[in-house]
Amino acid sequence: MKYGISSRLGCFAAVLALSITAVGCGSGAKGSNKDITIGLITKTDTNPFFVKMKEGAEKEAKAKGVKLMTAAGKFDGDNASQVTAMENMIAAGVKGILIVPSDTKAIVPSLAKARAKGIDVIALDTPPDPQSSADALFATDNLTAGTLIGKYAKSVEGAKPVKIAMLDLNPGITVGVLRHNGFLQGYGITGSDPSIVCTQYTAGDQAKGQTAMENCLQKDPGINLVYTINEPAALGAYTALKAAGKTATTMIVSIDGGCSGVKAVQSGQIAATAQQYPLKMASQGVDSIVAWAKGGKKASGYTDTGVNLITAKPQPGLDSKDVQFGLANCWG
């Protein structure tokens, strides 16, 4: 990992195992804004979703004239690095911390420690478990996102018998659970339905998605519908299906709305995806902490940052946006 502090901007950042940088110090600052420091901790610094989230936070921090410290885990699920980042940010005197929890339960003691010190803690994208362990949540309604693609798949498949592979995130991670359950609700089945012939964990990774799909095909070569936690996992699944000569008979649905994912919808690799908006999550989170730090009301509860179904083949009775909308609003 690279470590860096922008000396030109004169921002202080504590650094241990993670990349922690500072941006936007004093640029256009008014009043006490230059004394406000906000932390952003994402799951990784390589996933395009989190890259765009960081860009959104940096842009808004600069616009508001506040300091921003950033950190990321080494991989999805890296709780230890997120704990270290929180310790660093607490020590640096941040007013608020925006965090995408990698381990939604294990991070809770660190969130409690920050809040006990008067730091505003806002979860982005992924709710901690329990959600109330953060002051507020700015995120996609992941249950709705899953429901949208489940309804789409059911609309296409109708009463046709299906064999479903579910390529999930990691065990117990709230965002993965919500999307999984949403798909089931949208399709109109339960987790014990016999049509689900294979469930695998992918960590949202393309290579692991490919391996998971290969494992599922070994278990049941007749799989014809694939739910994936995100588009990297979907693209990995597509690679495995292509190698097995099954892309023409198998539909993939997914969630995220990154540019590579929308292009995969455009090309027909993915039938539909549910698009979410990471830049909006980050910018609204920064705004909320700045407003509170300047004497405003602290955000609480859940703020829905929106989701849209994106497909090149719309279905009757289902609201959706076309590929052009998806490309105009994608990230990565």
Quick recap of the structure?
GO terms for molecular function: carbohydrate binding. It holds the Pfam family Peripla_BP_4. This protein is of the alpha/beta class.
Give the arrangement of secondary structure elements.
Blueprint: E1 21-23, E2 37-42, H1 48-64, E3 67-72, H2 79-92, E4 96-99, H3 108-116, E5 120-124, E6 136-139, H4 142-157, E7 164-168, H5 174-187, E8 196-201, H6 206-219, E9 225-228, H7 231-243, E10 251-256, H8 259-267, E11 272-275, H9 278-293, E12 301-304, E13 308-311, H10 323-328
Parallel strand pairs: 2-3, 2-4, 4-5, 5-6, 6-12, 7-8, 7-9, 9-10, 10-11
Antiparallel strand pairs: 1-3, 11-13
Signal peptide: 1-24
Pfam family, one: Peripla_BP_4
Main location: other
> Helical region count?
10
SS content category: alpha/beta
- Give the domain tally: 2
What is the share of helical residues?
Answer: 25-40%
Protein name: Fructose transport system substrate-binding protein
Domain Periplasmic binding protein: 38-296
GO molecular function, one term: carbohydrate binding
InterPro entries: Peripla_BP_I (IPR028082), SBP_2_dom (IPR025997)
